[in-house]
Structure formats: structure tokens, C-alpha cells
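Extended Data, panel c. Modelled sequence:
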Amino acid sequence: MAIRTRAPRLAAALAAVTTATLGLAAAPAQATGGDPLDYVALGDSYSAGSGVLPLDLTAPLLCARSTANYPHVVAKRTGAKLTDVTCGGAQTKDFAGSQYPGVAPQLDAVDADTDLVTLTIGGNDNSTFISAILACGSAGVLSGGKGSPCKDANGDKFTKEIDASTYPALKTALRAVKAKAPHARVGVLGYPWIVPAKADPTCFAKMPIATGDVPYLRDLQTHLNNAVQRAASETGATFVDMAAASEGHDACKPLGTRWIEPVLFGTNFVPVHPNALGESGMADQAIGVLKLS
């Protein structure tokens, strides 16, 4: 019964994504001389589209990279020539070092001929997202969804880690991108909203976060995105703000509206990550802010 109920919604969502992804393509984005942009995509699972099918069979299996991720959508819509080295679980350190045995540092894909670079990075540094979601989810279950047990237990621990470690690491990583591709446009995407601005009592079964911890997680994500924005501004990159674009598309929304899949009862095999609709929305925002069409 549940499968039959969800099937029409899933079909509608897939139809919407197909329409958005395979619609009339924009004129190819061009570099100087009229050639298509030499486009390199870097970043973590939000860039890789981890959890979204179909998988990119040319990528290392552990990266769980999707051919429906926002770099592929950007390239398809603009005609850019894409080199995609995004990888689920990536941290800023994996730009300069190997994330997995046999996987080259992501910066190896960038050179002086690169015209465009996009990336989403920082959420895995200090395990910010994973630690916070696990801590708040566990606390929410134990409290029956009441109070703010995660905030009470962790306070400003996560935001302090972002300021002390993630922010300077972001600047170092972005400076390295600029050094290897001095003439490239570098677009740094923020993370789309995971939870709504206010607690939704109907969402607890999918996102077991206590009522008082929903704004706590929202503030944590705001803090991380602000750190990403500051690092981009201070290194000559362009910040692609996802806050307004992703408002109303958080994990508590129904299938076909939400961009982020919930912890439970979602459609992705990697929870709390963008679905295909979310990756398409991120591509839309990147194309608009970076003026690629």
C-alpha cells in the first residue's frame, strides 16, 4: 500500500526533474576564442550528488558520484566541457591530498586552462554535518521530540569548530584553486536548507529532531554557510547563496517539493542529501549567479 501511495509522487518528481534537466539547452557557455568552457567540478557529496541514481560508473565507487549531480546538469545546460572529480565524504584537505587509495587529489584536475570551477565543501570538516545530525537525532529520539537536548548538550561546540578549523581550511583550499587556475571563475555553492526555520511536528517521524533543536541546527547551517561565504569573498571566488532558493524545499517537505531527503523514509540511498530535484535546483542557482547562460 505504501509503495502504491508513493509511486505517483515519485513519478511526478521524476517527470519534473526530467523536464528540468532535459529541456531546451541554453547556448553553450564559451571561453575566450569561442570554445566551450573548460569546467572542473570539485567538492563533497552535495556536489557529487551522492545518493542520486544513476551512478557515474567512471568514478570511484566510494565517491558515490551521480550523473544527475549539479555539475552534470550545469554542463548539459551550458555546453561546457566537464571534468568531474567530486566525491562523497570529501573534506577541504582532499583538494591537495588523496581522499582514498588510488584517488588523485581533486586539485590535480585543475590547471591554467580551466575556465570554470564549482564546488561545495566544508560540511565534512570536523564531521560538522554528520556529528550534528547524529547527535541531534539521537537526542531527539530519547527526548520524544521535546525540548532542545542537542543544544543543551553541545552548545556552541559545532560553531566554534567551524570558526577555528573549517573557515581557515576553506580559505586555504580556495587559494589553492585560484593559484592553479588564476583566470577561472570559481563558484562556491552554499548548502541548501536541511531543516525548516520552525519545527514541523509532522516531520518528526522522518527527521527525529526535537522541537527546540530545529532552530539550533538551522543556525548551525547558517553559521557554516556564512563561513563559506566569507572564505569565498576573501579569496576572489563567487559565493552561490542557496538560502533563498532552497527555502521551502527542506527535508520536511513532501516528495516532489523537497530538495533534501530526510533521515528516514526518503528516496535516496544516502539520507540528508540532495535528491535529483535538489541537484537541479543547485544547478539553476549556479548558472544564474555565475551568469553561465
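Residues 157-180 form the longest helix (24 residues). This feature is highlighted in the accompanying rendering.
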